[in-house]
Amino acid sequence: MDCALMSRRIVRAVGLALAAAVLAGCGEAQPEAAAPVLHFSIVSTENAQTQSQEWGPFLADMEKATGIRVEPFFGSNYTTAIEAMRFKQTDLGWFTNQSGLEAVRRAGGEVFARTTKPDGADGYQSVIIVRKGSGLTLDQLLSCDRRYDFGMGDAKSTSGTLAPLTYLFSPRGKTPTECFATVRSANHEANLYSVGAGVLDAATNNTNSIRRLRAVGSPSSERTLANIEIIWRSPTIPEDPLVWRKDLDPKMKAKVLDFLLTYGVGDTPEAARQRAVLARIQVGPFRRADDRHLLPVREMEATQQLIAARNSGDAAGEAAAGQALTDIAAQRAALTASSN
Prior knowledge:
CATH class of the largest domain: Alpha Beta
Shape: globular
Family: Belongs to the phosphate/phosphite/phosphonate binding protein family.
Strand order of the largest sheet: 2-1-3-10-4-11
CATH topology of the largest domain: D-Maltodextrin-Binding Protein, domain 2
Protein name: Phosphate/phosphite/phosphonate ABC transporter substrate-binding protein
Structural class: alpha/beta
Distance between the termini: 95 Å
Mean pLDDT: 88
GO biological process, one term: transmembrane transport
Helix content: 40-55%
Number of helices: 14
Largest sheet: 6 strands, mixed
Keywords: Signal
Low-confidence stretches: 1-27
Number of strands: 11
GO cellular component, one term: ATP-binding cassette (ABC) transporter complex
Number of domains: 3
């Protein structure tokens, strides 16, 4: 066969094969890029079903406004929420002050916003509740004769654990485990119902949780509220922070922040509707914040550590806690100076 003719046939065959491959590739469905998803963590101070019902409309509005699918994550406790962020199972969420501090320290988080109250009040209080009519006083509770069954919050709870330790037990050189017959750890809702039903003699709680229970308006919630009374209140605690992972996509951060800072703001009918949605989760419009929001809880933590170290004769621990308080005071002074 003529070599030139053979060469032409080979070239033609190769060209046809390449064309067929290209056409075949055009006919195949190409895989689509996965749609972005935001995993939003919510601290479960009530049961998950209640949280899902109350937060659903807000998360739906966030999804619509940002164009990003939003998946809620209801952790069974604060540690679960922190670990979920640490292992990047969640992207952002609503934390208490102490659990938010842990998320910043251990999960690569940073504070970016904070909650407010629907009525404009700023802050809440940790409380100790007893069954109404029991006659149980704070002095009797602190007699530490191991007669009473006591309920506390999660170990990472600001109002359920840290605040009562800082402001009530540690200054008196006492610990709940030494004072009471039993100490049970549960969420605020469970502690409210347990005290109201007489299962516990007393428990820690907070004014926000009591306000949420009052808003439920069910026969069981009203019965519980009628059966409890407050015998101790802490100093005011800052409202809760919102924390996101530092490495979250900046475009996602911008969309989320724009949504939060404008949601429920203004005099329009839509803003009024949004405020009604926020009222279901017992908050008002959100405000911008950063890690400086955690200064008060860091101060509470260091104060509790200082008192505990002093009571136990731990000189090194006392020095470390004292230095932490000095550092916090310096940061607060610098913050005050920069705002003037």
